[in-house]
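Hi P.,

Sorry for the delay on this. The queue was packed all week, but I finally got your sequence through. Input first:
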Amino acid sequence: MGLVTTKEMFQKAYFTSVMIDGSQYDFEKNVEITSQVVEYAHEKGVVVEGELGKLAGVEDDVKVDASDAMYTHPDEVQEFVERTGVDSLAIAIGTSHGAFKFKPGQKPQLRFDILEEISRKIPDFPIVLHGASSVSQEYVKIIQENGGELADAIGIPEDMLRRAAKSAVCKINIDSDLRLAMTAGVRQVLAQKPAAFDPREYLKVGRANVKELVEHKIRNVLGSDYKA
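Then the structure:
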C-alpha cells in the first residue's frame, strides 16, 4: 500500500490500524515509505504495521518467486523500527503466501533462530507472521475429490505456529486455510447436488467449515481464546 493510497483511505473511512508493505524495495526505500505512512497515521491516532523481509507466494495477484524471497536480517530490525516508528513488525522466517508453501518432499521449516535473534534485538516488540496457513489436508482432499486441483498443496505445521504464538509473535495471519474450508464446502455440496443453485444452500456448508476451523485455530493453535 503506497502513501497516496493510504491517505485517500484515511479520508474516506476511519481505521484503527493499517499495514504498509515496503518489503519489495531495498532497505532505505522501505524505511522512507514506511516512515511517511507512520507519520500520517500517527497524526490520526492509527497504529502501523511495517514489513521487513520478503515472503514468497501470491498475494493480491502479485507473485513473488521463491528465488526472490528473503529472510529478515536480524541486524536490520532495530534500525528499521527506530527510524520508521512502526508499532509492529512483520518478518520473514519461512512462511509464504498461498497454499503451496513448500515443494513436494521438502520438509516445512520455520527459522526460529532468526525469530529468537530478532526478539533479542527488539525485546518486547510486537512481531507478526504473514502467510501462516497450515493448508488442512482434510479440506484439500475434499476439494480434490470434488473436481479441484490442489495436488502438492502444503502449509505450515500447526505445532510450529503454536511455538511461534508462545514467543514474541503477537499476530499470525491466516487466509488460505479459510479459503480452503469455504471452497471444500461449496464443492462438496455442488458435487453431491448438481441441481443446487441457491447460494444459501451451498455456502452454508462452507461457512460451517470456516467457523469450525477458526474455533480450532483460536483454541488449539494460536492460544488466543478469551484474549482481546
